[in-house]
Structure formats: structure tokens, C-alpha cells
Amino acid sequence: MTHTTATTAHHRPRWWTELALLALVYVAYSAGRLLARGDVSTAVDNGLAILRAERLVSLDFETPLNRLFTEHAAIGVPADFVYASLHYLVTPAILVWLFRRRPLQYRAARTWLMVSTLLGLVGFILMPTCPPRLLEAGQGFVDTMAQYSSYGWWGAEASAPRGMGGFTNQYAAMPSLHVGWALWCGVLLWRYGRTPLMRTLAVAYPLVTVIVVMGTANHYFLDAAAGAAVMGAGLLLAKPAMRLADRVRVRFARGGAAAPAAAGAPVVGGGCHTSTGERIPGQRTSSAAGTTSTTSTTSTTTSTTITADTTSTAGASPDAASGAVAHRSHAGGADDAASAAAR
């Protein structure tokens, strides 16, 4: 996964803003799960419909797996530990690993996870689903979390810690975000892991999660498939979501910078503002100013010369005065020609 933007190319994410953002999203997600509790009878009907569809095409893998986990504690107990813990440990660990080792790819991965989680929440709201373990006994499922609750910290009523079962939505089986988050972890481990061990974990962790969620009777096979589909949709929407976030950020940044810029602009009058580098509207260019200065200097020099000549010839002989006047006329003509050429 290689989605990056100009923002991520130059700025490392701040850990405190990321922590606050992820905490906010998770709290909103957890609250949404609780608020999405629908009618229990509707959730049971949806669960039975999924089970019938699976049995129609022989995809009810959860039935034999649950029987295996129930009959063999050596399999069932570790599976319950995996279900109750890794979902909440591996995912944050991958986020921290990416933040520290792959900061340019972190934002895209985090956005993918967040968008997919919100899509899963929509699924919980639209289709509350009873998990296999809560169906009537005649369907053949056993709640392994309840059967082996004495081995772990979870209570008999849910995978939550004892006494906190009432704070979970047990009818949020469709889609399986246990599978979705595990798939997210696997893709990132495969993409950015550099050792054979990392590649092995990238494949094993999602597969083990799929088997565990069905064997413990917490999800149907179609729940797992839906979890993978949600992650695929989240991946497609992650890049547009980042572009939208960047546009919003730039718009707010421009709005904050516009006011100081407007306040510092020199006002000439009547709402007219000078352009950049211009003090007075219509200011002459440097070339025109230079030409005017040259002409003025020439005129001043000529005037001074004429005055001096007049003074010096005041007491001279008539012939000398006449020659001086002729000389001044010739000089004045030359100056006029030079001034005209300059213009």
C-alpha cells in the first residue's frame, strides 16, 4: 500500500494528535456499537438466515469447527485467548510500528483502518446479527467462551472482562471486524515486513483469526467474508478520504492567513491598494526616471554656462561680446538637439 500525499511527504505525524484521533474514533465506534443494538428477534432472524444460506451451499464451516473446539480444551482454550486478546493487541502494535518505522505510509494505513471500521459500524446498524453461540441449542452450537470462562478473564456472557458483558453489543456479528482488522495487519506486515518471519505472520495471523472466530461460534463464515469485503471497500475509499482531509486543512489554513495579509496591505485611498513593490500608483519606471534626470541635468548645466558667459562678457569689447553670443547660440542648439534625442 503506497498512498502518500504532499503533506505526508514533508511532515511526520505528531504522536499526540494521532493518539487523540485514534482514541476519539474508537470511542465513537464503541458508542456506535452500543447504540446500534437492534431488536433481538430481528438479530436472531438475520443469524438464522445466514446459517440457512451457508448450509444450502455447504459453507457452514463454523459447525464442525465449533464441535472440535468444544470437545478439545487444548484447542478451545487457546482459541478463546486469541479471540479475547490479539484483536486488541496486534492492531495497536502494528500502528505503533508503522508510526515509528514507516511514517510516510502510516497516514494511509491509519486512514484505511478508520474508514473500514466506520463501514463496519454501518453494517452493525443496518443488519444486527445474532452470532452462532447465541442461537437456540437446537442449532448445534456451544459458546466456548462460556464453557472455558474459568480459564481466562472474560465472562460467561461475552468476550468482555467479567462483569462488563452489558457494555458490549453481542449482536454485532455482521461483518466480522476481528477478521477485517487481522487482514489489515496481515497486508501491512507482508508489505513492509523485511524478514521471512514477518511474511509468515502476515499470512498466519488472518487465517488463524478466521478459524478462531468460527470455532468459538462468534461468527459465521459469511461474517468473515463480509469483514474482508469491508476492508477492501475501506482501501478504495482511503485515498479519497485523505484528499478530502487535505482540502479541508488547506482551506482552513488559507482562511487564517488571509486576514493578516489584508491588514498589512498599504491603502492609498478610495479602496485602492498598491501592488507588490509599488509605493505610489502609476510610479514611473526606472528607465523613464533616468531619462528625465539626464535631461534635467543637461538643462541645468546649459543655464549655468549661459549665466557665467553673460557675466564674463559684460565688460568686454563689442567684438568679443559678439563672438561670445555666437558661441552661446551654437552651444544652445547642440544642447537642444541632445535633449530632443534623449526624449
From TrEMBL:
Domain spans labelled Inositolphosphotransferase Aur1/Ipt1: 49-236
Biased composition regions of type Low complexity, renumbered to the chain: 285-343
Transmembrane segments: 19-36, 81-99, 111-129, 171-190, 197-214
Domain of life, per lineage: Bacteria
Cited CDD domains: PAP2_Aur1_like
InterPro entries in UniProt: Aur1/Ipt1, IPC_Synthase-Related
One Pfam family of this chain: PAP2_3
Lineage, broadest ranks: Bacteria, Bacillati, Actinomycetota, Actinomycetes, Kitasatosporales
Membrane topology category: Multi-pass membrane protein
Entry annotated with the keyword Transmembrane: yes
Localization: Membrane
UniProt KW keywords: Membrane, Transmembrane, Transmembrane helix
Coiled-coil residue spans: none
Protein name per Swiss-Prot or TrEMBL: Phosphatase PAP2 family protein
